[in-house]
C-alpha cells in the first residue's frame, strides 16, 4: 500500500516533479499555437505545414497515450515517466533547432511520443505513491497546478515569441527536464513492474496512430487533390478498420470494444468528439486571427485567451457540484450551446476589433460554457462504466478528445476554404475564419443535441472525479485508478 504523506518532504517533491513533467506536455499543447504565424514566416511555411506542426504532435500523443500508460505497469511507472521526460526534452531540442518546416514536423511527432509516456505516468505516480488518505488532495493539487500552467502557457509563449524568439517555446523544455529528472530519480518511489509477463497491445496502438496520421494527411492535402491523397484516404480507412478488427479479436485489447456496450459511455464520447473538435479548431485558428487580422502581437494574442482558462480554474469545481445535484444532462446540453454562442460572437473579431467590446465577451461566454460541461462530462464518463474500468474509460475519453482536435485542425481549413497562403492574407483569412466559426458552432450544437437526447444521471455509488480544478482546453482530465492496470 502506498504510504507517502502529503505533508512530508518526499510528498512535496513527488508533487513538484509530477506537476513539472505533466506541465511540459500540457504547455506544448497550447503554447505552440501562439507561435504559428511567426514559425510560418521564419520557415517560409504554408498553412498545411502549420497544421502539421500542431497535428504531428497530436497524432502520436493521441495514438500512443494508452499504450504509454500500459508500459508504466510493465516496466515501472517512474522509469517510464523519466524516459518520457527525457524523450520529450530531446525532441523539444530538435524542434528548437529545426532548420526547416519538415524537420520541425518530424521533431513534433517525436515530442508526441514523449508526451504519451509522461502524461499518464505523472498521474499514475501520484496514485501509486501517496497514502489513500492523501491521494485525493494530491490529485487535486496536481490538476490545479496543471491548470495554472495551462492558464499562463499562452502568455509565456507569446512573451517568448515576441522576445527571444519562437524557438524558445521548445527550448524551454530542456532546463525544465534537467530539473525534473534528478528530482524524480531521487525522491519518487518506483511502482509497477508487476506486468512483466503480461502482453500489451502494441499492434492496436500502432494501427490507431497510423490511421490517424493517414486520415489527417488526406484531410490536410485534400485541397490539392490527386491520386496520392485518394490512396492515403483509403489506406487510412483500411487502417482504422484493421484497428477495430484487432481490438475485437485480441484477448488484451488497448480499447476493449465491449466498453462501448454502455450506451451512456458511447453517447458521452460522441459529445466529447463534437465538443473537442470544435475547441481544437477554434484555438488553432483564433490565435492566428488575432495576430494576422486584428494585428495583435504574439504576447497580446496569448494573453487575450487567459479568461477562458481562468474561468475554468475558478468555477469548474462548483460546476461539478451543481451537476451532482441536478444531473449531467442539462449542463452537457447548455454548456456546448454557450460555447457555440461564444464562437459565433467571435465573428465580430475582425480588423480594428476592440478587445473589451468584441474579444473578451466571446471568450467569457466560451469559458462559461466550458465551465458548465467539462466537470459533468468527466463525471458522466466515469459513472457510465463499472468502477473497476473507470480509469480505462477516462483514458479512452481523453484520447478521443485529442483525436477529435487533430481531425478538426486538419479538416476545418478545408471546410472553411482556406488556401495555403491564407494566413499571409488578412482579408482572406478573416473571411475563412468566419466560416470556420460557423462549422465549430454547428459541431457544438450537434453535441448538445446528443447530450439532450441520450445522457442520463449516473447510478449512485459510481466513481467520482478527483480532478476538480482543470484548465486544459484540449482534452478532459485523466481520472480514476491507474489506467495501466486495465490495459496489461
Automatic annotation (TrEMBL):
Keywords: Antibiotic resistance, Cell membrane, Membrane, Transmembrane, Transmembrane helix, Transport
InterPro entries noted in UniProt: EmrB-like, MFS, MFS_dom, MFS_trans_sf
Every Major facilitator superfamily (MFS) profile domain range: 14-459
Lineage of origin: Bacteria, Bacillati, Actinomycetota, Actinomycetes, Kitasatosporales
Keyword Transmembrane belongs to the record: yes
UniProt subcellular location: Cell membrane
One Pfam family here: MFS_1
UniProt organism field: Streptomyces violaceus
Protein's UniProt name: MFS transporter
